[in-house]
From TrEMBL:
Residue intervals passing through the bilayer: 29-47, 59-78, 84-107
Xref: InterPro entries: LrgA/CidA (IPR005538)
Localisation per UniProt entry: Cell membrane
Top-level lineage group: Bacteria
Coiled-coil zones: none
Organism the protein comes from: Deinococcus phoenicis
Protein name, UniProt field: LrgA protein
Key words of the record: Cell membrane, Membrane, Transmembrane, Transmembrane helix
Gene Ontology annotations for the cellular component aspect, listed alphabetically: plasma membrane
Membrane topology: Multi-pass membrane protein
Length: 112
């Protein structure tokens, strides 16, 4: 029962954060705002840690599984990175050349 209560509290703060972001048109993710509100509620003692501890531990235990699809996708497209390596080198060289020229021009203009 405590797990369900904790999950409800966590979900409620996430929903509250999303609602605030939507209503106030804030440039932040709603879940981040909800996490900030949860932190404030925990700091003020409005929410007790033991209320959400079981649900938070359960969610953290499965967090590693959420990274599996992303890791598989990165590994699958590693061969595509080799094809892009030349383009990345060209862009890096252009960036360094442009930054170098801009730095030299700025140094010259400062001296004058």
């Amino acid at each position: 029962m405590r797990f369900v209560l904790g999950l409800g509290i966590l979900t409620g703060f996430a929903a509250l954060g999303t609602a605030l972001v939507t209503v106030l048109r804030l440039p932040f993710p709603g879940s981040v705002v909800g996490m900030g509100l949860l932190w404030a509620a925990l700091s003020l003692g409005v929410v007790r840690l033991h209320w959400i501890e079981g649900a938070a531990d359960g969610l953290l235990a499965t967090l590693g599984l959420l990274f599996v699809p992303a890791t598989v996708g990165v590994i699958e497209y590693l061969s595509a990175g080799a094809a892009w390596a030349l383009w990345l080198l060209v862009m890096l060289a252009g960036l360094l050349l442009g930054a170098g020229v801009a730095g030299l021009l700025a140094a010259r203009l400062v001296r004058e």
